[in-house]
Amino acid sequence: MRPFSHLLSQKRVRKFLIPLLCALAIVIFLQLLLGSRPVVQPVTSFQALKSIPATAQQVRTGFYPVNVYQLDLSSNTYYVDSYVWFRWRGAIDPIANLEFSNAVEEWGMTQQMGYEEPQKQPDGSLYQIMRVEGRFFQPFALSKYPLDEQRLGILIENSIHTAQELVYVADTEDSGFADTLSIQGWNINGWQVGSLLRQYDSQFGDQAASTDPYSIARFELLIDRPLSYFIWKLLLPLVIVLVSSWGALLLHPRYVDMRIEIPVTALLTTVFLQQSYSFALPEVGYLVLLDKIYALAYLLIIVALMEAIVTADWIKGETTEDYQRVMQLDRPFLVGQFLILVFGVLTLIFV
User: Fold this and answer.
1) What is the pLDDT along the chain (351 residues), one digit of tens a residue?
2) 58, 261, 343, 349: which has the fewest Cβ within 10 Å?
């Protein structure tokens, strides 16, 4: 059986293969351009609480997570074990109709009260603390994966009383997270806590229900991935494959078979590498950063393959001049591929 590279070196096959590779390279290039467009974020119903209504009972609310685990990008969920406390004055019990807005599988959530009854404080206010452990949902923004930054949030609101009656005021002084808290594979960069308003566009069938917004307290952990994860686990294998494909340009032009087979093998290997990280990601309607880097790699490998096929015609005479002509193209072509890779990756990361 003739080797695959021998078939590619035939003029009749090249007549169709080269236009096909050109078309594929154009498609990848356009995908890179289109995929670089910013992802449009969906319109949210949350608004910042700018002022507290005079009629509202204020509830000072704080958060203190002690554990975060099972962060799953494919399902946009994570488990949080946290303390949540409330301090208030007034007749409305802020815990009676409390909801964790972004909780998942509430049947499996643990909510343990610190006291059987709210405790009266020296200033006359009431105090209650609870420990909550459960699974929460947060749509992850993955356009910069694997250099993405995420926010792991906990949202609480009252299902009965609107912001005209009850407002959760974030306790920025005592909120925080345990110094022993760690998330495997992620850096914790800090936290944010704030008070929001949520406007529902429905009365849920109750014509007598108020259309006023509801008060929400939100706590978020700010996390990102270590740079070493991107460099050593994701980028390095791809670079090794690309460098091996460039090895074809260092071979003597007489080795036509190897100069074609090496880029083909690198192309197939790149496909498998991309599949290995794609399984951990949810289905998204845009290219993530690593997808764009792989698209650039595909483009470089296809162009290298085209160069090997085209220059196979130049050495039919097997003269020294023919070989020299190919080598004069190989060296600048190799340098150009390297520069395009470096500047392309840096551009995709920082733009």
Assistant:
1) 445 545 454 555 455 555 665 666 666 656 655 555 545 454 456 888 889 999 999 999 999 999 999 999 989 999 999 999 999 999 999 998 999 999 998 778 999 999 999 999 999 999 999 999 999 999 999 999 999 999 999 999 998 999 999 999 999 999 999 999 999 999 999 999 999 999 887 766 765 667 789 999 999 999 999 999 999 999 999 999 999 999 988 888 888 888 889 999 999 999 999 998 888 888 888 889 999 999 889 989 988 888 888 888 777 767 888 888 888 888 888 888 899 899 889 988 887
2) 343
Domain end residue (candidates: 164, 194, 225): 225
Name residue, tokens 């590498």: 273
Cα 91 to Cα 143: distance, rounded to the nearest angstrom: 47
Query: How many helical (H) and strand (E) elements, i.e. helices and strands, does the chain have?
Result: 7, 12
Gyration radius of the chain's alpha carbons: 29
In whole angstroms, what is the distance from residue 267 CA to residue 55 CA? 66
Structural domain including 158 reads 46-225
- CATH code of the domain containing 92: 2.70.170.10
Q: How many CB atoms lie within 10 A of CB 171?
A: 21
237 and 220 within one domain: no
Half-sphere exposure of 288 (CA within 13 A, CB side): 18
Residue at 83: amino acid letter: Y
Say if residues 307 and 337 touch (Cβ distance below 8 Å). Answer: no
Residues 6+ apart with CB under 8 A from 305: 21, 260, 263, 264, 267
Q: 96-118 in b/e burial notation, b at 16+ Cβ within 10 A?
A: eebebbbbbeeeeeeeeeeeeeb
CA distance 163 to 5: 72
Domain-located, residue 41: no
Instruction: Identify the CATH number of the domain in which residue 325 sits.
Output: 1.20.58.390
How many Å apart are CA 302 and CA 248, to the nearest integer? 13
| Greatest extent of the chain over all pairs of C-alpha atoms, in Å | 99
Distance of CA 97 to the CA centre of its chain: 34
Q: What does the alpha-carbon distance between residue 32 and residue 295 come to, in Å, rounded to a whole number?
A: 7
